[in-house]
Amino acid sequence: MGSERYRDTSTELRVIAFALRKDHRVLDDVERDYFSIRAYSLFFDICSSLKSTMPQNMLRDKLGERFKEPDLYLPFILKCFQCKIDKITEKNVKVLIEKLKRLRYFRLSLEKVEELINQIGDGQEEEVRKTARQIATIGIKQKRVYTGELLKDFEERKEIIKARMEKPMVGIPTGVERFDRISGGIVKGELGIVIGETNIGKSIALENFALYPWERGYNVMYVNLEMPKSQVEFRADSRLAKLKYKKFRLGDFTEKDLIKWEKTIKEYRKKRKNFFEIVCLPRSCSPLDVEREAERIQDQYGKKIDLIVVDYLNIMRPNREGKGSSKLWENQVDIAWELKEIATDFQEEGIAIWTGNQVTDEAEGTSELKKKHIKYGRGIGEVAQIVLGLVQDQDDLLENVMQLQTLKLRDLHKINPIILRPNFDFMMLNQEEVRPGMRSLANI
């Protein structure tokens, strides 16, 4: 039958040239076999593995390290860097990628149908069934699968334990000392969720969970979907400079305040070599948008991100639009799973992620949060390894304290609430105080 009619090498050239020279992230939506020319598939391998654009000589060197046949790729490198891409926009390249996806579907389908016809002619009943199943799954992306043999993987597990022996705090701290001591911090590959009723301070908690590790040398990406960037920054300024937040909100500054603020920032600039990158995305952004921004930031700094904080889950949408509103419980659970997949798989290493979630109407004013109080279904709570709840009942209000309740902490059993004495004037959540008579968490 021939599959030549389902190839468009000029479109393949424009897509791979755009990725190599302008924005490598377009390859996130591309599979290797979208390219029918082998050289372009090799370029795809290099660009997608390094997650970077690159000059002509770098691409040539990287290919030379892997392949001993320069004639296979050198002419196509020249084509890629001579191809005119100035007028190709991100929107244009998405259209080109969709075309390649469609052509690849027809190309693979045709090849399999030809194979199926031959097998039918030869009377190969079992092979016919197998090929028919393969045809039915063409175009369906398979989930990543992790495998390993128990005994062969011993050395890998041993290295994990040795790292924990050398450094008991293996995770990233929150600044809530008792929680950090019990949990060891949130670790790479984990999704942590903070829940609480409206206006209780979830956003302040999340920003504290981001700023505290940043002050201790971690690289942090803080994603906010509700506030403008300046508001997020002023909240951080308030905490760092110990200046009341209302001064920033109202512009009620004295000359002394301005000097103190500027001096604080200058001191941090001198001693901080790590970054705290703020990303303000629109509501209804997706986990994929967050992942792409993370990749861009790592490219920008040439450093790995240690922690991503997203404020917050319920105003996102899933990567693939489900039926109906993003507020439907199944779509919200999909968002949680997609954030979890970033935590597990980000650049094949994983990353730690904190996010926030609302509570049900039933939980408003309660003195004890439970998993059933997680808005949009318990499924969200099952996805996360850590679920923390912020609670402030009438007694707490009188004492000006708040409870940090642990609804889930990996496989640990029930943990008593941690008492916090927040100071929202300075955007601080993590000043703890144990009530008289409460059993010390150090003994749990």
UniProtKB/TrEMBL annotation:
**Annotated SF4 helicase domain residues:** 165-434
SUPFAM superfamilies assigned to the protein according to its UniProt record, in alphabetical order: P-loop containing nucleoside triphosphate hydrolases
**Cited Pfam families:** DnaB_C
Q: Name one GO molecular function term.
A: DNA helicase activity
Q: Name one GO biological process term.
A: DNA replication
Q: Which GO terms describe its cellular component?
A: cytosol
Q: What is this protein called?
A: SF4 helicase domain-containing protein
Q: Which organism is it from?
A: marine sediment metagenome
